[in-house]
TrEMBL record:
Highest taxon listed in the record's lineage: Bacteria
Keywords of the record: Membrane, Signal
The protein's name in its UniProt record: OmpA-like domain-containing protein
Pfam families according to UniProt: OmpA (PF00691)
Record domain OmpA-like: where: 63-181
PANTHER family, sorted: EXPORTED PROTEIN, STATOR ELEMENT OF FLAGELLAR MOTOR COMPLEX
Region (Disordered): 205-229
GO CC annotations, alphabetized: membrane
Database matches in InterPro entries: Bact_OuterMem_StrucFunc, OmpA-like, OmpA-like_sf
Amino acid sequence: MTLLKSLPLFVCLGLLAACSSREVEPEVPQMPPPEVSQAWLDEYEPKVKEAIVGSGFELERKENVLLVIAPADLTFNKDRPSMLMPSTLGPFSKMAKLVEADERVGILILGHADSSGAYQLNRDLSRDRAASVTAIFRLSGLKQDRLLRQGVGSDMPRAANDSKEGRALNRRVEIILTRKDTLVALISQYNRPSPAVAATVAVPAPDKPAEPAKSTAKPTPRVVAAKEQ
């Protein structure tokens, strides 16, 4: 009889032990509510537009982010493909200074390449170009927890690579301004190519995780003087 009375207690203890042993799933950062996102975008869109005026860069507003597109042919030296042209330092520095004092803002810098040449070489080049632009933002004072970079190679083209014009559009660096608390959710979208894009790439190499900008000694951005015509 005593055993029967004790049985419910044992069952309850067993259930409690099972619940406590379950792994707690990590929380995935959520994008801010639409009304918050729109207010933030309304504030920064005209400021970013002013910062890049006359640079040849493009500004797009997409859902919860502002996207600045820097064409590689305008941004990097032709002879040293990951070296910034001096003309780009102004607009990049203005963007960095614009957001540096606002702890709400995070920056994701993505390097892209066209599909000509070896796949891994394109990925390495896109990563080097993203690092060169990241250096400007780091020198302007952005902390490591607000600045991420990634090279995605040719995995995410803007246009088909079957024409000179299309390949030029695909060679680019994108500077994405977003809320700092959504950076992790945002970078997860770029760590793997989408199925449609992956199908066009022959045996893609495994991607590396997003690299936070290192906050050690401040590097000198790689620039080169424009050649005389």
